[in-house]
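ARCHIVE CARD
CATEGORY: sequence design from structure
SOURCE FIELD: tokenized fold
FIELD CONTENT:
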């Protein structure tokens, strides 16, 4: 169906005969209303917007755009979207909502528009769990293509390591399946290499047996940041991989939906998730609590895994955000001091987090993939509100926060946390992948998309 107030051009005429979904063009209010995703700072101005209703819609759109000399940009939830410009067709896959759990095989097949919340709810009645990120509102496919490091990642590894097959449309418009036994080179690339090799329409992932976790957060006033971070640093030195944890500085708005002890405050929080016997969790937490000052609140409890999003409590509503991340080789006391100095109470940075890595994240999967950063010990990530609603130096403040830990960095970053698609993030990803993996990815990118149909990014500059 065409939704436009302008005359249909050849691209629209071709697609209107083939699509089950909709085409929207500039000049129609419905076009502009449908452009924003989760990150409102990402401004799209495509030549057309296609709301796909099927994998066939995706294939028709890619072929039509290619024939018209246009690039294709893809988004579902818009959490990690890059701007789509005038020479681009923005392909929205949020309508691909297939979801089927196979309890016997312990797998789930999801369409490209499915969010983690849907998977958690569908898997829980079977005692199974999907390895989501900190926010269940993020799309399954985009998150997983970047690797995926969630609240129990040290126990189970990268989410990409649990992918069994990927259904996608290649840049020449073919619908193919990639797995360990079929299109194996493509399967290697998309798991950790991102969406540069095709438009994913569906994915099948292995689920894990997990009903409950001991999880939650300890909250402190930001004035306690230094003692909290130093105690956390010492505590994580020999943690078993049954624990996944991070520490974060937060500048919280005076939002009445927040608990009174958090609304409008500068705080520091320790996130904790344990998989395994409760006695082990209690013993590990006792060590941490003894080393910490008295908290404002302690929310750690046994919870159904489907509530795992409560640990980080990421905002579900769309926001204009600027963000950046990096990987660290270690976290000595001097690095903690640098982090605290960069995030004083009242900082313009809304969130600055250090995550403990290692554990199962270090292990090479049975089927090798392009996932980067397995050798890193920690990650650092910073984000704040951008644009008129945020601080005037939002981008610089985020950059300065991450760069404060550069002396202890690997020089790399995770795909999902690298930040804006610019020269800095491009260099960070090349470093994280390493020269051999990056060269292999670039060669595959050139082989599958020599004409640059999938919207190019600075991250895919020639080596």
């Amino acid at each position: 169906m065409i939704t436009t107030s302008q005359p249909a051009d050849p691209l629209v005429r071709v697609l209107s005969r083939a699509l089950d979904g909709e085409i929207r063009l500039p000049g129609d209010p419905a076009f502009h209303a449908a452009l924003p995703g989760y990150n409102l700072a990402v401004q799209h101005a495509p030549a057309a917007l296609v709301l796909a209703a099927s994998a066939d819609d995706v294939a028709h759109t890619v072929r039509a755009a290619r024939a018209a000399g246009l690039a294709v940009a893809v988004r579902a939830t818009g959490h990690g979207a890059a701007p789509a410009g005038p020479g681009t067709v923005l392909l929205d896959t949020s309508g691909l909502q297939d979801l089927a759990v196979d309890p016997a095989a312990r797998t789930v097949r999801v369409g490209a528009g499915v969010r983690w919340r849907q998977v958690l709810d569908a898997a829980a009645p079977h005692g199974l769990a999907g390895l989501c990120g900190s926010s269940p509102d993020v799309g399954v496919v985009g998150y997983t293509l970047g690797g995926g490091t969630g609240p129990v990642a040290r126990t189970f590894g990268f989410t990409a390591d649990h992918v069994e097959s990927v259904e996608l449309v290649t840049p020449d418009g073919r619908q193919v399946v990639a797995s360990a036994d079929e299109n194996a080179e493509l399967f290697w690339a998309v798991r950790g290499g991102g969406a540069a090799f095709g438009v994913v329409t569906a994915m099948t992932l292995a689920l894990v047996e997990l009903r409950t976790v001991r999880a939650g957060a300890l909250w402190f006033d930001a004035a306690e940041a230094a003692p909290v971070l130093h105690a956390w640093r010492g505590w994580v030195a020999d943690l078993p991989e049954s624990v996944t944890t991070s520490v974060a500085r937060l500048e919280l708005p005076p939002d009445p939906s927040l608990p009174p002890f958090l609304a409008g405050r500068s705080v520091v929080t320790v996130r904790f998730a344990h998989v395994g016997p409760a006695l082990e969790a209690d013993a590990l937490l006792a060590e941490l609590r003894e080393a910490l000052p008295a908290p404002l609140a302690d929310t750690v409890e046994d919870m159904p895994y489907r509530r795992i999003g409560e640990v980080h409590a990421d905002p579900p509503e769309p926001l204009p955000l600027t963000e950046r991340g990096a990987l660290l080789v270690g976290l000595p006391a001097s690095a903690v001091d640098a982090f605290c100095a960069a995030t004083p109470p009242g900082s313009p940075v809304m969130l600055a987090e250090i995550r403990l890595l290692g554990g199962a994240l270090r292990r090479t999967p049975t089927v090798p993939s392009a996932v980067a950063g397995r050798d890193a010990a920690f990650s650092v990530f910073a984000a704040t509100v951008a644009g008129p609603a945020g601080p005037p130096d939002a981008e610089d403040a985020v950059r300065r926060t991450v760069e404060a830990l550069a002396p202890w960095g690997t020089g790399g970053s995770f795909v999902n946390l690298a930040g804006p698609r610019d020269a800095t993030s491009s260099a960070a990803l090349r470093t994280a992948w390493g020269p051999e993996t990056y060269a292999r990815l670039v060669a595959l990118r050139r082989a599958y998309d020599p004409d640059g149909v999938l919207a190019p990014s600075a991250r895919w500059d020639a080596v």
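CARD ANNOTATION: Confidence is low (pLDDT under 50) at residues 1-8. The radius of gyration is 22 Å.
SHELF: design records, drawer C
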